Fold this protein.
Amino acid sequence: MAPGEAASRRLAERAFAGKPIDAFRKLPDLPFYEIWIDRTLVYTDLDGKVLILGNMLESTTLTNLRQTRMNELLAIPFKDLPLDGAVKTVQGSGRNKLVVFADPNCQYCKRFEAELKSIKDVTIYTVMYPVLGPDSLAKARAILCAPKPAIAWHAWMDGGIAPPAPAESCKPAFESILAFGRKNDIAMTPTTFFESGKRLAGISPAATVNEGFAAPRR
């Protein structure tokens, strides 16, 4: 182990109160070590003298290298995603699959819905993830309890048509969905998962989503 690597490991463990390091590597083209610790991605210089918190942007495209890497580290096998009760939308053959965690009051989710409409041959499972307050919870419940949840979802997201009031007996299991999200660091809406397990956090253009279909499935 190089002296700088050992110093970098010690610095990260000191900064995170002795938490174990889960992944460690030298960045391929940059003079930094990348450290995944306590589900947080940080960097150090090669001498282990400075710990860097926050985003790292590539100069040409302004791609957020930290977020891209976190999406890889936080991948979830497709089979483990909570699809029971998800709103299902099929476009074209539906051969590709996406899971989108969305809040009905999330403006970024509404913009993302417009991007998704242009994607061909995809099955979209929308998981109601009401994290923006009590009204989000009420709307998500009303959508899932509607006679045709997919129609209610798109009517609300596309046209602002509120779903009908749900029956008192209809009580979707939001507690388990929210617990799954907390456990797996789903901190924003929309968050999208591909069959490969890869995630995209936040709104992405349709071209980026289409690129994601090329990754091997998990």
User: Anything to note?
Assistant: The chain has seven helices and nine strands. The chain has two domains: 3-73, 78-212. Residues 78-212 form a domain with the Glutaredoxin fold (CATH 3.40.30.10). The chain has a mean pLDDT of 93.
